[in-house]
Structure formats: C-alpha cells, structure tokens
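hey m, so remember when u said the tokens were messed up on ur end? i reran from scratch. heres the input so u can diff it against urs
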Amino acid sequence: MATSDFAVALTSLDKVLSAIEAVIDPDRLRAEVTQLESEVAAPDLWDDPENAQRVTSRLSAVQADIDRVTSLRSRLDDLGVLVELAQEEGDAASLAEADTELHALESAVEALEVRTLLAGEYDPREAMVTIRSEAGGVDAADFAAMLLRMYLRWAERHGYSTEVYDTSYAEEAGIKSATFQVKAPYAYGTLSVEQGTHRLVRISPFDNQGRRQTSFAGVEVLPVTEETDHIEIPEADLRIDVFRSSGPGGQSVNTTDSAVRITHLPTGIVVSCQNEKSQLQNKAAALRVLQSRLLERARQEREAEMNALKTDGNSWGSQMRSYVLHPYQMVKDLRTEFETSSPDAVFDGEIDGFIDSGIRWRKTSEKV
C-alpha cells in the first residue's frame, strides 16, 4: 500500500473510532464500573443471589465494552507508529505487517460501529430464539434443523454460551420446532434482525424423483426477561401439564414424566421444556420462555399503538431471506440485498455479514 493510501485509511479509521467513542462514552462507563465495583465489594452482596448475578454480569459487560474500545484505540495508535517507522526505513516486511493489521483493524472497528447501533430498549438482553418448520413438509422440518445448527454454530464461533430448552422432532427428519437461549450481552439486539420467514430452494433429498422443492421455516427472537421486568403471572392463569420427554436415541430423560408444558390461559401461549431431567428445572425454564413471550407481546402492543399514529405500519416484511441451492447457489437477504454465493459457509454459522447489514438496514428504516 502506498504512503498516501495508509494516511487516508488511518485518518478514516480515526474519524470512525472517534465517533464510536463519542457514543460509547468510556468515561461514563468507567464511572459506572466504579459504582458496580463498590456494590460487588459489599459483604452482603450474595444475600440476594439474583441481584448479585445481575450486578456481576453488568460489571463484566461494561468492563468488556471499555476494553474493546480502548484496545482498538491503542491498536490504531500503534499502527500509526509502525507505518511511520516502516516508511522512514523503507522496511517492506513491516509495511506488509502494517497492511495486514490495517485490514484486521478495519473489520474490528466496523463490527464495533454496528454494535453502537443497538440502542433499543431490550437490545442489551440475552436472546430466546425459537425456530419452527412451516410450509414444505419434511423438507421444511429438515430446513428448520439446518437453521438451528446454523445459529448454534454462529454462537459457538463467537464464544457465546447457549442452552436448548425444547426440541420437537419431526417424524421422518428434522424438527418441528426448537427453542434455545443465547447467553451473551446484546444477543437479542444482534439476533433480532434474523426474525422472520426463511426460504430454502433445493433439489429435495426426500423426493425420489429428484424434484426441486421450496420450503419455509420461521425464526422468532425474544429478549430474555430480567428481575426488573416484574412480569407477574398468577398461578390461576396457568395450566401445567407434565409428560414424558421424547427424542431420538432413547435419552435418559425419557424414563420419567419430567417434561413440562405450560399454557398461559389469558393469551393461549403454550411453551414447553424437556431438556432437563428434573421436572422442577423444566418448569423453571418453561416459565422463563413464557415470560420472554409475554414481554415481547407487551412490546408489540406498545409498538402497535405507536404505528397506529403513523400513515405507514411496520416496515418489516415476513419473508426475509432466501437460501438457494439449485439451480445456482446463493443466500440473499431480501431486505438489505446482502448476498453470498457460499451457502455451505452460511449454514456453518458464517452469518455476521447478514446480521450487520440487517442492523444497519433497520437503523436506516427507523429514520424514515
């Protein structure tokens, strides 16, 4: 890269990072860290385990935000020094090293820039994701299983912990539905752009005539509830049924009636959990899912009230992405036009490009 090109790139990165720092406000975050550290140091902190968990989790998340932006600033400053010295000495190897670091730094700054766009009320929350097979029979069930693996692989790539609460297997192949939690800060804000109907076009492996099949699967993303949400669910509003867990392979959980299904009578919402061996654990997990759905229902009601005041409604369409495996290979987001010709990589969890473009698209749509 020429000297002038390095100078332009470094100046551009500095402007973007300065804008990010203005939004994140590291000084404000450091003040919050000081306050949280005083709470963590309190001798009676763990008298209230739930509050202790909230405080320690928030401290970890805020410190990570500070470390992320300060690390990028330090790397940018070091890169400027490296480029200057390499150019003065005509050191080609150092210039090549600087070029590599520049591209890595550009990617890291872009990712952090997208993170600053997550400013919704529930965006910092963990995410509760449900995938359901829709039209397309056995192909749709298989597609739903492919999406489940895709999101779990995406979380694994980022080092995010996940927990599968419930999986309903289809008779021939794939799944009817699955619900899992992504336990990471901003998981909801990040994955919420994945909500909608996904479409798969391929030669069906389940069709003995080798015909092309179009199938659909739905993705629902909800914020995980917190103690501060105060969602009270009277026992009288619940019908709780227990049943024997089911799944391939004769799991040990299949030997007792440990699975739990909860019906919220006022809304008709039904949730279930069969992942744990204990009926009490399954009930607690199912209640968490129910609370998340009631929280999302309340958010949608507020949003509907706001949309009723506008001339146009919500701009989100139902069908949001197509995965085409035949007669050509392409995955394309129908809202952002972002696409790739590597569906295998996408199904292996490489979906950051789709997520980032979706977050930018949503932010732009909100301004219209």
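this time it looks ok to me. The chain has two domains: 3-115, 130-302+318-368. if urs says something different then somethings off w ur setup not the seq
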